């Protein structure tokens, strides 16, 4: 999951409520669940992701996308005006899901360590559900026009600042140690998540939830001083 660059339980707290179902249903979200129209959109996006991954954005034609998606050009242009729209949608779908989950976690009013855990687990689960999309965007994002990229950067900055503010609050309240700045802690969290497409395989020995909890354990251990 590629969010969070600024331009980028304790045993008692480790309960089902503390983990909060972060990322609940992450793998099942997205365009695929919105009926017949959603199915067409999902096929178009999936085709674009696969082709951009295999041969790059520039080398992929609209004709190749519609052939792989088994739709007409008219169907594609009904939803997306260009390849640029598709590239934007590939990442926008992920960051929108993550921001919705972030708002839900923050609204729950959990103790700060539980909120950090829920956020980290959700980031890992939602990114793991879209590893190929995340990798494609990281490689091809420079193709986006300035206004589109600015919009995505604003979303990423909102997420980054929300997590940083939680750490700042925890440090001020004495819940978290201040041995590292809140900005550094936040960059570490997103640095780990942003690298997931490079090495993580969801079908390996560790599930996204297990990995998310391990990363959260690491972060919270550091914050405990």
How is this structure best described in words?
There is one protein chain. The protein is mainly α. Helix 2 packs across helix 7 (131-140) and helix 6 (112-128) packs antiparallel against helix 8 (146-172). The protein starts with 15 loop residues before the first helix and ends with a helix. The chain contains eleven helices and no strands. It has two domains: 29-81, Homeodomain-like (Arc Repressor Mutant, subunit A, Orthogonal Bundle), CATH 1.10.10.60; 82-225, Tetracycline Repressor, domain 2, CATH 1.10.357.
Distance between the termini: 27 Å
Global outline: elongated
Per CATH, the class of the largest domain reads Mainly Alpha
The sequence of SSEs as H and E is HHHHHHHHHHH
Helix content: 55-70%
Main beta sheet strand tally, sense and closure: none
Briefly say what this structure is:
This protein has about 220 residues and is an all-alpha fold. Helices cover about 70% and strands about 0% of the residues. It has 2 domains: about 30-80, Homeodomain-like (Arc Repressor Mutant, subunit A, Orthogonal Bundle), CATH 1.10.10; about 80-225, Orthogonal Bundle (Tetracycline Repressor, domain 2).
């Amino acid at each position: 999951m590629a969010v969070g660059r600024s331009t980028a339980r304790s045993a008692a707290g480790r309960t089902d409520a503390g983990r909060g179902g972060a990322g609940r249903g992450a793998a099942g979200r997205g365009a695929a669940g919105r009926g017949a129209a959603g199915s067409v959109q999902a096929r178009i996006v999936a085709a674009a992701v696969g082709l951009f991954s295999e041969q790059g954005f520039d080398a992929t034609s609209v004709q190749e996308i519609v052939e792989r998606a088994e739709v007409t050009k008219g169907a594609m242009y009904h939803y997306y005006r260009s390849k640029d729209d598709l590239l934007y949608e590939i990442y926008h779908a992920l960051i929108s899901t993550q921001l919705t989950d972030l708002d839900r976690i923050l609204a729950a009013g959990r103790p700060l360590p539980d909120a950090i855990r829920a956020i980290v687990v959700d980031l890992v689960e939602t990114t793991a559900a879209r590893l190929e999309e995340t990798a494609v965007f990281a490689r091809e994002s420079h193709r986006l026009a300035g206004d589109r990229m600015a919009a995505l950067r604003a979303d990423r900055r909102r997420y980054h600042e929300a997590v940083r503010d939680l750490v700042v609050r925890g440090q001020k309240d004495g819940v978290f140690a201040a041995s590292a700045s809140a900005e550094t802690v936040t960059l570490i969290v997103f640095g780990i998540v942003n690298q997931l497409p490079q090495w993580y395989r969801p079908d390996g020995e560790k599930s996204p939830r297990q990995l998310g909890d391990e990363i959260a354990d690491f972060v919270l251990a550091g914050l405990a001083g």
